[in-house]
Amino acid sequence: MADRNFDDIVDKFAKNIYGTTKGKIREAVVWQDLTQLLSSQFEGKTLKILDAGGGEGHFSRKLAEMGHQVILCDLSEEMLERGSELAKEQGISDNMRFVHCAVQDVAQYIDEPVDLVLFHAVLEWISDQKYAIEQLVDIIRPEGVFSVMFYNANGLVMRNAILGNFHLATPHIQRRRKRSLSPQNPLFPHQVDAWLGECNMQIIGKSGVRVFHDYLQSRQLQQKDFPALLALEQQYCREEPYISMGRYVHVMARKQIQKDDL
Question: What does this protein do (predicted)?
């Protein structure tokens, strides 16, 4: 299976990711994780950051605005063009570099190890998922951090069971709509944790993204009192069992120093 390129549905993608209540929750939870990470692990430092498969650069541009040097790569040339135009409008182009390539191939464009890699909502669209993680970890400097968010197989099972779609309550059903934004390759958290461990990465933080929102009985409830819903999400998103039931899981892992690095 080829890795997913969103050039054919760029407008739909942009609207659905951050233009909805689910997108607002995703942004709030992940950005809170990242700002806490920056203050605890990299306080006062200007970082070299790779946003792997970052599309229009929603988080890239926030980080560039803070003064960090950000490389944004994506398989979609159209999304990169949009990201570049938005960076120009924000006056942050000098802090950004745009690379058109698959995440697995980005190492050839990186001249030195980076401090932080963002890899958000991309893994579930890739055929060889472990290989992609390995390639990105390789370009992180010792004690650098990997921020990976993935579509959670636990959440997919739970959502379909709650809806009464019992025949779909499995992570292995292939969806018919190829243009859909529903990922084809959900992952179990324990599998991603194991891959990170094999890559000498130590998990330092984990959050569930949308631990309540998608399980509400009606979409009207998602909007009726959104501030209260968002507060509830942020209250429980870093506690089990809620982490493991999020529709997405955000994991932050630090690259451990090996003897060869000393």
Answer: Catalyzes the methylation of 5-carboxymethoxyuridine (cmo5U) to form 5-methoxycarbonylmethoxyuridine (mcmo5U) at position 34 in tRNAs.
Whether residue 2 contacts residue 194, with contact meaning beta carbons closer than 8 Å, is answered with no
Is 67 flagged in the annotation as binding?
no
pLDDT < 50 stretches in the chain: 1, 5, 8-9, 179
pTM of the model: 0.91
Which tokens is 4 given? 């997913």
Q: Are 190 and 225 in contact (CB under 8 A)?
A: no
Dist CA 71 CA 259 (whole Å):
29
Known binding residue 53? Answer is yes
179 marked as part of a ligand binding site: no
